[in-house]
């Protein structure tokens, strides 16, 4: 007996890397899996391989149940199609993992509209489309779990990723709103920041010693390490866990803080620009956050 016996999971971007590990782990835990992947290369162009089918075949060959899907998360129609495939093939849907992603890195003052929109469409709009498509089924059966992939690029910050950071922090807000809106239907929603070396981040430049050190560290992060936590989070055993932000970094699991006021300033007379400058900024100075990047926070080697 597995912890996901009788359940059906949809995993987007499941043909490679983190998504592949999650799909295989769901199957191992007893779930039937819809393996979604467009099968495109890093530039978004159609490739020769069919990764979704390869993962589904691997699951079926091992005695599990899986079906491949190549719809795009960037359209509502594509999202509805992949959710309907779960219903038509396996009769229900219990877990949605919004893992599909892309990168179009570039410094903000050089970033094009296409580079920004492409990343927002896949990560943020994609997470909305797939989640929204599953919502009526979750509501009717009074159960369901969403797991959305965020990133420390949004939670903390990184150079050259304004599009990616905006999408990933937006996903945190989306996840929390879903958790609030659907808690009455016994539906849960959480966000996970995965630390993993994958094909997607293989495009990170290594033009400087600092960049090379960052990449060398990232290469130690195993994508399959993300899967056990995601499966546990989607299981009935985590029925009390919703609206949270987690991180998984090899054998480490993090619970992230969420924005709350840390200092307040008050005046009975009301504020003017001058009194804000004279009183508020000095009062808050010691608590202002520095311009950290992810690597400034996670400075130790992964374990």
UniProtKB/TrEMBL annotation:
Record domain Ketoreductase: where: 7-203
Ranges in a coiled coil: none
SMART domains given in the database record: PKS_KR (SM00822)
Gene3D superfamilies in UniProt: NAD(P)-binding Rossmann-like Domain (3.40.50.720)
Alphabetical list of Pfam families matching this protein: adh_short (PF00106)
Membership in a protein family: Belongs to the short-chain dehydrogenases/reductases (SDR) family.
Name listed for the protein in its UniProt record: SDR family oxidoreductase
Origin species: Bradyrhizobium diversitatis
């Amino acid at each position: 007996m597995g912890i996901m016996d009788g359940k059906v999971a949809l995993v987007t971007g499941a043909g490679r890397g983190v998504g592949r590990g999650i799909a295989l782990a769901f199957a191992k835990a007893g779930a039937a899996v819809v393996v979604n992947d467009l099968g495109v290369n890093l530039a978004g162009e159609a490739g020769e391989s069919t990764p979704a089918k390869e993962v589904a075949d691997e699951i079926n060959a091992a005695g599990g149940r899986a079906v491949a899907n190549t719809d795009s998360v960037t359209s509502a129609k594509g999202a509805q199609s992949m959710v309907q495939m779960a219903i038509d093939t396996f009769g229900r849907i219990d877990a949605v993992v919004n893992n599909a992603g892309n990168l179009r890195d570039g410094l903000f003052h050089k970033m094009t509209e296409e580079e920004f929109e492409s990343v927002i469409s896949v990560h943020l709009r994609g997470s909305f489309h797939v989640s929204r498509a599953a919502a009526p089924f979750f509501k009717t059966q009074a159960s369901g779990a969403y797991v959305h992939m965020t990133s420390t690029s949004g939670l903390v910050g990184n150079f050259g990723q304004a599009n990616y950071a905006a999408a990933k922090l937006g996903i945190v807000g989306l996840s929390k709103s879903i958790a609030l809106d659907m808690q009455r239907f016994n539906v849960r929603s959480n966000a996970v920041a995965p630390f993993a070396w994958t094909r997607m981040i293989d495009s990170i430049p290594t033009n400087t010693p600092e960049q090379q050190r960052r990449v060398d560290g990232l290469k130690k992060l195993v994508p399959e390490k993300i899967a056990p936590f995601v499966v546990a989070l989607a299981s009935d055993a985590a029925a009390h866990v919703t609206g949270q932000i987690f991180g998984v970094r090899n054998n480490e699991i993090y619970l992230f803080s969420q924005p709350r006021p840390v200092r307040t300033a008050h005046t009975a007379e009301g504020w003017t620009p001058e009194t804000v400058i004279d009183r508020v900024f000095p009062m808050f100075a010691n608590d202002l956050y520095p311009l950290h990047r992810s690597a400034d926070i996670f400075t130790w080697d992964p374990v």
